[in-house]
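The authors assume throughout that readers already know how a fold can be written as discrete tokens. The format is easy to grasp once an entry is in front of the reader. For illustration, here is how one protein appears when written out as sequence plus structure tokens:
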Amino acid sequence: MKNISPSKQLIIELLKEKAVHKQDVYANTLYNFNTFKQKAEKLSHLLTQQITRGDKRVEITYSEKSGFEFHLKVAGDLIIFHMHTNIFDFDKSHPIWKNSYVKNNNLNAYCGLINVYNFLSDSFKYNRTNDVGYLIGRIFINKENHFFVEGKRQLSFLYNDFNNAVLTENSVDSIIDSIVLYALSFDLLTPPYDSMKEVSMQEILEVSQSNISTGKRLGFKFQADADDLL
């Protein structure tokens, strides 16, 4: 095309570089998300064989909700994996920019995102729509399969080598195991008696209708939250 203005030429160059690169990142993230699905389903079968044969009250299930979401129910915990359909860069204050791998090529910082949430399984079983969940981890994956995880405790320090860590089937297995272990490592703690001794009529009606907001984070306290302060 003749007589293309400098501004239009810049648009074309950006599309060729950034837009095409983001499409590659998206395709790779989706590929890996499907691996997470397969590994989570295999884990549910393994745990079912090992646990529920001895006690059928302990329910372990895998369910795929869409191409971008699946659920792993492990006893009283429901772990939701959700892949975001957009690609993300990072604020310049983020530690990722200190990595030589990113300094050598800024495009390496573009990542797909898988969010992992923890809910009480009863929240979905009894349709308690006021209940709250908790973001326990964020998995970032770039075009070249380098990855890192933001999260609490083992999720943050086991998977934070973006320079060198490459996502494989084994590392997907390990990440899922860490997520399940974290979700199972804390329990609901009852609030102090004095903070609950007075209730309104509206609150007791909500309890009767199973509409009171409940969650590991709000209304109760994470055992792990107390541990994090140590």
Q: What stands out?
A: Strands lie at 60-66, 69-74, 77-83, 112-120, 134-141, 147-151, 188-189, 221-222. The mean pLDDT is 86.
